[in-house]
Amino acid sequence: MAPLKILISNDDGVFAEGIRTLANAALARGHQVSVVCPDQERSATGHGLTLQTPIRAERADELFDDGVQAWACSGTPSDCVKLALFSLLDEWPDLVLSGINHGPNLGTDVLYSGTVSAAMEGTIEGLPALAVSSADFQWRQFAPAARLALDVAERMLAEGWPSNMLLNLNVPPRPAEAIGELRWCNSAVRRYTDQFEQRVDPRGRSYYWLAGEVVNDLEAQVSGPAAWPTDVAQINAGGVSLTPLQPDIFWRGRTADLPVW
What we know:
- A divalent metal cation binds at residues 11-12, 43, 101.
- The chain is of the alpha/beta class.
- Helices cover 22% and strands 26% of the residues.
- The protein has a 9-stranded mixed β-sheet with strand order 3-4-2-1-5-6-7-13-8, sandwiched between helices. Strands 9-12 form a two-stranded antiparallel ribbon. Strands 10-11 form a two-stranded antiparallel sheet.
- The protein is globular and about 50 Å long.
């Protein structure tokens, strides 16, 4: 296909191996690549924006292959995409990519994810956008996830990307030859147990550390086609999950169950 103008962001920061792998892979395919991402890790920031302090952006081209233009931004992932679109880039991109995240973004965790929120910022502005995550925090072989993300994005653009749709791609932590099939998936329900650990500092004052254990509720009813697996089940089976999301989070229950006002 013709070269694309691609904007790439993340929530793991400009020094993360995942974003370097994705940006350099896109460049190697002949695309025009711009990176605007946080200057440090901003995981689990959700769709937060910086309102009380100034946002700074410094060039960081040297961290990527020659030809990638990059900025390290002091704000959140959503700040980065907004700043790129409305201030830093001369032209808007054809595609927004976010990732490759160091860890999964499955089920209801997408509500907290800075990676997904960065991509969602592109969707809100009417741009095709895809978030990609490596579904293990310790896995560092990002090349297969980069290839899959670019393959999916290029095919979706060639066949017609539906408006108002964000794609959330999760890749299992396996070598390329051991990765299972890619399937459309519903979002699972994920909850956490024992979410806070109470500790005491040297001065005897209590503080709390967020340290919960994830619980995947595979029996919960979820929205979406009944024939589709959940993203969690697909990853657990060794396959690749691809979930369509949208900014609209309007309730989809029965209006007959609501009182009349």
